[in-house]
Design a protein that fits this description.
Oligomer: single chain
Shape: globular
Number of helices: 6
Distance between the termini: 20 Å
Mean pLDDT: 92
Low-confidence stretches: none
DNA sequence: GCCGGGATACTCT
DNA sequence: GAGTATCCCGGCA
């Protein structure tokens, strides 16, 4: 298993978004780790992207991390309840990022089931199994990612992304979700599913 | 299985 | 004081 390094993240954001599909999110947990496979991403293309938090060059404390170095986590709270996990791409001062929209559980199934539903994995209904990480807020709950991880360096050991050799068979491209306010930018083909 | 509404708290105006 | 890169539950089929 190979940890993704800064050179992976410091590239074209759309390329990173596509190549993140099938990679693992690995989170240190006690003496071991838990992991999920990324199955859906969205690219957010900086100051000219109306759907992005930095559209028009907005620069506040909340979004400062996006302007920072690549390979960092950008975690923000949405609708007052849910966290969303992003990976910062491109060099310093180029504020682009990839939103991780969904994962499938790989390692630490009981931990994730506990975080999401307070039960063991074997006790989940079929519905709960499917929904364990199939949304940006849900995967953060499953992996216990919150705003304390904002700005975390993803090339270190506590939380990182890795390539375990898995390769996708097919990628579906579509428009992004939940950003109808963004005008024509809402229709850009920047969402990637397996 | 699909649809609709309410929850909830943080950020920026 | 409003808006938000969402989720969940309950109702009906």
């Amino acid at each position: 298993m190979k940890k993704l390094d800064e050179t992976f993240y410091n590239r074209d954001t759309v390329a990173v978004a596509r190549e993140l599909l099938g990679k693992l999110i690995v989170r240190q947990w006690g003496n071991g780790f838990i992991a999920g496979r990324i199955v859906e991403t969205e690219a957010y293309l900086g100051v000219e992207d109306k759907a992005s938090h930095v559209y028009g060059g907005r620069r506040t404390e909340r979004v400062e991390v996006i302007y920072g170095p690549p390979g960092r986590a950008y975690v923000f709270m949405i609708y007052g309840i849910h966290n969303c996990f992003n990976v910062v791409t491109r060099e310093v001062e180029v504020p682009e990022a990839v939103l991780i929209r969904a994962i499938e559980p790989v390692t630490g199934l009981d931990v994730m089931a506990q975080n999401r539903f307070g039960k063991k994995f074997s006790e989940l209904t079929k519905r709960q199994c499917k929904q364990i990480g199939d949304g940006p807020g849900k995967l953060c709950r499953a992996l216990a990612i919150d705003r304390t991880h904002n700005g975390a360096n993803l090339t270190q050991d506590a939380l990182f992304l890795a390539d375990d050799g898995w390769r996708e068979m097919q990628i579906v491209v579509s428009k992004r979700i939940g950003i109808d306010y963004a005008g024509e930018a809402a229709a850009y083909p920047l969402r990637f599913n397996l």
